[in-house]
Amino acid sequence: MYSVVKTDKKVLLSNGADVTPLLTLADEYGGRAQIIRDDGCYVLCLANRVGTYNTVKHWFPEAAKALHGLISKTD
What we know:
With 75 residues, the protein is of the alpha+beta class.
């Protein structure tokens, strides 16, 4: 199960872009996810096997809940 951890300072996307995440999530198996902002939209990125991140179309419940908390803090 993913939970919010200390936010990473920078991550590398699989397309070569270096981004600053708004929020980092991790699971007990070494999985990592980042919520970033791109062109005014929130984007979920998951770590792949080579250490970069891919954007995903489907948000898992823990990420959606974390995003809700993030948005609530900025209102």
